[in-house]
Automatic annotation (TrEMBL):
Domain CR-type: 143-221
InterPro entries: DnaJ, DnaJ_C, DnaJ_domain, DnaJ_domain_CS, HSP40/DnaJ_pept-bd, HSP_DnaJ_Cys-rich_dom, HSP_DnaJ_Cys-rich_dom_sf, J_dom_sf
SMART domains: DnaJ (SM00271)
Listed CDD domains: DnaJ, DnaJ_C, DnaJ_zf
Domain of life: Bacteria
HAMAP family: DnaJ
Residues annotated for Zn(2+) 2 binding in this entry: C173, C176, C195, C198
Cofactor: record remark: Binds 2 Zn(2+) ions per monomer.
UniProt GO cellular component terms: cytoplasm
Annotated ranges, domain J: 5-70
The organism of origin for this protein: Meridianimarinicoccus aquatilis
The protein, known as: Chaperone protein DnaJ
Subunit: Homodimer.
Repeat region (CXXCXGXG motif), residues: 156-163, 173-180, 195-202, 209-216
């Protein structure tokens, strides 16, 4: 069976530029890749055919020979090593051609990055850091400036972050030729791995800095001032750009994230911007009514009028006495929850007074009277 024309296989004209040839090959390789066409038994043959055509047309000398002699240019005395699709060096050519489209097909999954010149980043970005900071509810109400000490890796001053001693420059890694990754062929596929010599940086340092041992950074504790706005709550995250770990060999610095935890308060419970305060009230005050004094989160105090006949659990609202909204300027409310307190350690006289009151208070407990009326009806219903 006669072999198809290479230009026809890739769908380009004879005057196509190298970039047009490469673009056409990538499209065909994606279209006919066996992994994407499991239900098409011809996909592997079409894929190899496109690869064979690209091997010739991407090389200026082979292309010129093909334009002049056609397929006959690679038959006969030229040997298998020069023949597209042949054994020996031809298999290496296949891996080389396949690598051109490898990143397009699998780059996102392998994490590879290829620039226009085939290189990769020489410097790695520093890691982001997390610092857990505990503050009081009062600090969250007011806002504050907090000084924190953060252990971190900072740029080495001896080598200015390059990792090289005496102003020398890193050199291209001989193992990966600056790519930061190496390829190995396993059967039909070409697999990429991080270069073991340079750890993916693409460069090595022949004369490393004594202070940082070639890393370009050293461990050091830093003191930072953090602005905590009013209204923060547990889980609030504050980002300090560029205050994280220094990058490897002059790479960009990471960020520092402050995670806040607002501690529990002995008087107030918080729900969003609202505060709740449980205040004990004497039985007499709850029965007769009166005024009580309650604390507020700003350190002040407010007087609250207790209506006569108040029961435990009754709430009263103090508007705008709660927490401020974060960067909003408004305030929530404060709720006073009454807890009517039963007197203890009574004297004989107090006990007698309560007995006398009980004897005269048949109509003073409406809730109790209603409850026991329901209980009596329940029991009568069970008997019948």
């Amino acid at each position: 069976m006669a072999k198809r024309d290479y230009y026809e296989i890739l769908g380009v004209g004879r005057g196509a530029s190298p970039d047009e040839v490469k673009k056409a090959y990538r499209q065909k390789a994606k279209e006919h890749h066996p992994d994407r066409n499991a239900d098409n038994p011809n996909s592997e043959a079409l894929f190899k055919e496109a690869n064979e055509a690209y091997e010739v047309l991407k090389d200026a000398d082979k292309k010129a020979a093909y334009d002049r002699f056609g397929h006959a240019a690679f038959e006969g005395g030229m040997g298998a090593s020069a023949r597209p699709g042949g054994g020996g060096a031809g298999q290496a050519d296949f891996a080389s051609a396949f690598s051109d489209v490898f990143d397009d097909l699998f780059g996102d999954f392998m994490g590879g990055q290829r620039g226009g010149g085939g290189g990769r980043q020489r410097a790695a970005r520093g890691s982001d850091l997390r610092y857990n900071l505990r503050i009081s509810l009062e600090d969250a109400y007011r806002g504050m400036q907090k000084t924190v000490k953060v252990p971190s890796a900072v740029s080495c001053t001896s080598c200015n972050g390059t990792g090289a001693e005496g102003g020398s420059e890193p050199v291209t890694c001989p193992t990966c030729s600056g790519m930061g990754k190496v390829r190995a062929q396993q059967g039909f596929f070409t697999v990429e791995r991080t270069c073991p010599t340079c750890s993916g940086l693409g460069q090595i340092i022949k004369n490393p800095c004594e202070a940082c041992r070639g890393a370009g950074r050293v461990e050091k504790e830093r003191t930072l001032s953090v602005n905590i706005p009013a209204g923060v709550e547990t889980g609030t995250r504050i980002r300090l750009a560029g205050e994280g770990e220094a990058g490897m060999r002059g790479g960009p610095t990471g960020d520092l994230y402050i995670f806040l935890e607002v501690t529990d308060h002995e008087l107030f419970q918080r729900e969003g911007t609202n505060l709740f305060c449980r205040v004990p009230v004497s039985m007499t005050t709850a029965a007769l009514g009166g005024d009580i004094e309650v604390p507020t989160i700003d350190g002040g105090r407010s007087r609250v009028k207790v209506p006569a006949g108040s029961q435990s659990g009754r709430q009263m609202r103090l508007r705008n006495k709660g927490m401020p909204t974060l960067r909003g300027g408004n305030h929530g409310d404060m709720f006073i929850e009454m807890a009517v307190e039963t007197p203890v350690n009574l004297t004989s006289k107090q006990k007698q007074l309560l007995r006398d009151f009980e004897a005269e208070s048949e109509d003073n407990h409406p809730e109790g009277a209603s409850f026991f009326t329901k209980v009596k009806g329940f029991w009568d219903g069970m008997k019948s």
